[in-house]
Design goal:
By secondary structure, the protein is mostly helical. It folds into two domains: 72 residues; 247 residues, f41 fragment of flagellin, N-terminal domain (Up-down Bundle), CATH 1.20.1330.10. The chain is built from seven helices and eight strands, in the order ααααββββββαββαα. Helix 3 runs antiparallel to helix 4. 27% of the residues are buried.
Length: 337
Amino acid sequence: MSIFSTFIRVSPSVNTALEVLRNTQSNLNVAQRQMSSGLRVQTAKDDATYWTISTLTRTDISGISSVQDALGLAAATVSTASEGVTSAIDIVTKIRSKLVSAYEDSVDKTKLNDEISQLKEQLRSVGQSASFNGVNWIVLQDGDDPTEPHRIPGSLIRHTDGTIAIGMLDYEGATSTSGTIPSTDARYLIDDQSSGSGGYGVLTSTAFATEAGAAQNYVLIGSKNGDTTGQVEISLDATTTKGALTDMVNTVTAMLHQLSTIGSAFGSLETRVSLQSQFATNLSDSLTSGVGKLVDADMEQQSSRVLALQTQQQLGLQSLSIANASYNTVTQLFQNL
């Protein structure tokens, strides 16, 4: 064996320098990738457990975002309905004031009735206008089921078995499905269904007159499509008696009570939608923060690491250059042996 062969076999300087440089370059690639992506765990091979948790949590965050969008639409829908009921309460209160004024013998009941007629027209206009994105919660139309609650997505729930459920917020529907409809089931402002007689609408229901003991089946306005046989719209003329006025005032007072109940229900739902929306925002932020703690890179640390590795890379290149120079010198010395 020649002296040159022995030197090559026992001199690892070049190989060592190359190995160190490879490791440095590999670490630098990882650090630069984490810097550019902002993620310490970007793929499953980086950390299978954290990658799985972060991936599932991100799908939950996406679902919560969809729920937030739905809550935004729901908030607008409920707010529109609530505003419609509030406006209706103001108008019905004015109608009752007109009816009370009619007790005075010197008042022209015909002129009062003209004002009441205009107010009743305004009531229907309010009901039909209280629509958001084509959805109206206070006017019952054909095809709607008054016993079905209005439901809106409120939350995303992940069960322990990994399945997903959507929590719902409800505005309760009526309880009656047949027979006489009580005043408590008048959950709408107006019932224009052709299949009934207006019983699910406060303004179109005869239940308030019946429960007030009125002599006639008074309603404030008639159902547009329903069977209104035997119903009497509240109105005045010169022959209206004080007994009839009392029945009308009592009927309208009962209607106002139910309108207040509906308005309170909408107000409570508005509050809950607002609270749920805020909770969804906070939950999304919390989950995002939790995922970040698992997979996000420490940018300050990685920046320092990149600088250190770049310096180490330069030193490695210098070491390799020195090792190569030494190798070349030795080979030149032994070439002449």
